[in-house]
Amino acid sequence: MPVNQMNELGNLGEDHQDPREKQDLSQDEEEPSASEVPKGASYSPRSTQRFTTNRLLAYLLLKYRAQEPTTQEEMLSIIREHEDRFPELLRQASLCLQLLFGIDVKEVDPSDYSYVMVPTLGLTYDGMGSDRCCMPKTGLLVMFLCVIAVEGECAPEERVWKALNDMGLHDGVENSIYGEPRELITKVWVQEQYVEYRQVANSDPARYEFLWGPRAHAETTKVKVLEFLHRHSTTDASSYPSLSEEAENSEEERA
Fold this sequence. Notes:
The protein is mostly helical and 255 residues long. The chain has ten helices and six strands, in the order H-H-E-H-H-E-E-H-E-H-H-E-E-H-H-H. Strand 2 and strand 3 form a beta hairpin. The chain folds into two domains: 3-122, MAGE homology domain, winged helix WH1 motif (Arc Repressor Mutant, subunit A); 138-220, Arc Repressor Mutant, subunit A (Orthogonal Bundle), CATH 1.10.10.1210.
């Protein structure tokens, strides 16, 4: 897994305020006007766009957690002063939602511009529990499956932890979204059958590795996961020989 991709996700996470702190979003909330910006403060069109995108992102995440669809009209009520830039703002918010939380925004009825939010890549897991009080964890699961896919059939545990460390996740350190990482990946995801965690054969001292579990194989494919990684990476496709090989194999199978 490229370090720059992990860092990009980490930076997005730093920019994103927990939507649980935004439950009081109102239609009257607006960015400060130029006259309201304190003298000497920096306030650029770029910061305005980030503020607006984050507001829309928080709204979409709240709708997902409530398991409710939404419409373009409802979204415009959140960012009504930027109606002319709605398509671009929705694209950016949707991208953040996908990368940070593994949730896709899908249009279900073009006639009334209605949308639903679902886990990406055909996965059925979001890690929120029946009370829907937690944050979605599908984004991290997708990245975890990407790490294993890039490594081939299995990923050495030390490689996995290096990738997680690059994301700012550390063994034994509680994270506000994902909880304690080792507990999540070696117990929860193993129980959910998305991941297999096993000792490397004949290793002494013991070493461990991760593989895709049966549920991951049933719900998505390595080709889709690698394509997802490539789509969101700035690195040239030639840097991913396994991506090229899997794509070629997929084309041969379809033929």
